[in-house]
Specification:
By secondary structure, the chain is an alpha/beta fold. It is built from 8 helices and 10 strands. The strands form 4 sheets. The chain has a 4-stranded parallel sheet. A two-stranded antiparallel sheet has the order 1-4.
């Protein structure tokens, strides 16, 4: 059973005030015998919406072996509680950058013929689309698009290099694990400074690969570990290349990727590429 973050309720500290209950729209906590109890790990997303509502400090987050969180089961509970609870749950996922769960929740609402209360507020001013979310995170696969016409050198003209980007979105936390372009793909994970420093990024690194971008210094590495493990579990990833800068903070994602590969049990080939601050490829 995999390890993940999940709440822990100290029964000795819990006084049965039940203030945590309305702050867990997922339905993971219930009052039983005068105490707050975690009734199912399937319903706990481990994001801690209930933590600050406990006056006794009885609720904490720990990492332990637990069954995977099930967003569809959670949504089955939430839709019974009305639009405001649905919106609170979706907002909670969005604020914690849990885009995979947010996509699943939006898909569930669409299946049930229910409106998504975040669409109007998060995408105000955009025309409606068939995508159940903001256009900025709409899954797009354009690997088969026609190459851009090159522009030759001449008076007042420059050579126009063709973009090798073949999918959208590219931010690691925005790409769903089930995105169709991930299966049978060679994956390039790039620290977000690399494309600015390395002039040959498109031809030298990105060509023929699916791109995931993130910042090992500023982003949540534990969330990266979970997302990458899930991607490897549900897809056949042919290879992973991690391109990062030579600065120490960029190396933090190396171990995370290796852990995800190990956890998947698939032995996906992994290669590391290091770019210097001056834009040279070191390794």
């Amino acid at each position: 059973m995999p390890k993940r973050k999940i709440i822990k309720i100290d029964q000795a500290k819990c006084n049965g005030c039940s203030l945590c209950i309305p702050n867990c729209p997922e339905g993971a906590i219930q009052m039983i015998d005068g105490k707050a109890r975690l009734i199912s790990g399937l319903f706990c997303d481990g994001l801690g919406a209930c933590l600050g509502k406990c006056p006794q400090g009885a609720i904490t987050i720990e990492e332990r072996e637990a069954k995977g969180y099930d967003e569809r089961k959670v949504m089955g509970n939430i839709i019974k509680q009305g639009t405001n609870v649905i919106k609170a749950h979706l907002t909670h996922l969005k604020e914690h950058h849990q885009m995979e769960y947010l996509h699943q929740a939006a898909g569930f609402l669409k299946e049930k013929g229910l409106p998504n209360p975040l669409l109007e507020s998060s995408c105000k001013g955009h025309a409606p689309t068939s995508h159940s979310g903001c256009p900025g995170s709409k899954i797009m696969d354009f690997r088969k698009k026609e190459p851009a016409a090159s522009v030759g050198k001449g008076e007042g003209r420059q050579i126009s290099a063709e973009s090798q980007l073949r999918q959208w979105p590219v931010q690691l936390m925005l790409v769903p694990a089930y995105a169709p372009y991930l299966n049978n793909a060679d994956m390039l994970i790039a620290a977000d400074c690399v494309p600015f420093a390395y002039a040959s990024f498109h031809e030298g690194l990105l060509k023929g690969k699916i791109l995931l971008v993130g910042c090992p210094k500023l982003d949540d590495l534990d969330a990266y570990r979970q997302k990458l493990t899930q991607m490897l579990n549900v897809n056949n990833i042919k290879s992973i290349t991690y391109a990062h800068m030579e600065v120490p903070c960029c190396f933090g994602l190396v171990g995370i990727i290796q852990e995800a590969v190990t956890a998947s049990g698939k032995g996906t080939p992994f290669k590391e590429v290091i770019i210097s601050i001056s834009g040279e490829r070191l390794q």
